């Protein structure tokens, strides 16, 4: 094994036997876990009809590619040990080139669908008739690239494109530029395209909610203005009909501290001048003298100021207000967007370590062991992340299905009269109500029959007595 690793040393850097075993364990454990998780997705999608929506169908299609990627990860370094010209190494290289980059393609397809649903007002269910097009692009694109590289050979570069990589069989290091242009560049184009679509969707949601709020505010203001104008007109007309004078009242308000200015011991009469000040627009028939100006002093304690909330509370309130502007009321669109965002986030997290490893290797001529560990630990887990997203977003539907199937099974067992364990359940009280109901029904039938028979006997006795009397 160490001799083989000396052959695949990059820029004089050699991996030890312990490091090789660590990488092999990480690759195979991650691939096996992803393979099991993907199989659980297929089983749940086949059994539960409620989870067969558009977003979960995208995850299922991406999981088909995860099967090939997981198998390639489980092969690990066996292809390297058999040589780059071996069929196992060539097959592993083909699977990595085709299936490993399929997730970003499906992520971009989901992002485009979300953009069409929110920005172009498409119905999410209308995409079902376009599945063939999505499969042709997201499967056909990587397949075309992988198949083309399989037949390219150049003896000056050591032979075929597929050969020895750092962790497994993939594009040979002599064709390093092929890795960039046919793999990482396409992957990050898909990731950036997904980010752009989600930014446009967020802008669309933000603008729509602002329009809705401004429209509701305008309508409420228009509804209040006629009522205010009507009440103002009625009060004005009422004042005109009641009297024709204008009374000027002046009130002086003085604020003082309650401790320094105590209340007077005795109440004093307010000072009121004798003169009146009344003006008329037209001479009335009779004018009653009325007081014109009032002078009064009001003593009050200044209201205590409410304490300002802390900085953390203000920040939390601002964040909540900003997040409220992006709330989506439609539950179908909200679930569709949530699943797509989680899928895009998983793709981003998966490809960051591998991309950093590739950039460092490209610039420095090689990567340390820690970079290889991060790539071997994260990259094979694409199927696991897809399963986590699938079951988190579909947990309610799955739990309802399980509960309903469990209840139907118990009802079938309870309603089966030929069950061999029915007597035991009756003794345990499981079928107590059913047994009591049957007993009551039998008792009522018996009473009905006995009542009918008794009435017949009484009728015959009565007829016999009548014949004897006659």
TrEMBL record:
One of its GO terms (biological process) is adenylate cyclase-activating G protein-coupled receptor signaling pathway. Residues 23-206 form the G-protein coupled receptors family 2 profile domain. One of its GO terms (cellular component) is plasma membrane. The keyword Cell inner membrane does not apply. It is found in: Membrane. Residues 294-304 have a biased composition (Polar residues). Keywords: Membrane, Transmembrane, Transmembrane helix. Its main location: membrane. This is G-protein coupled receptors family 2 profile 2 domain-containing protein. It comes from Stachybotrys chlorohalonatus (strain IBT 40285).
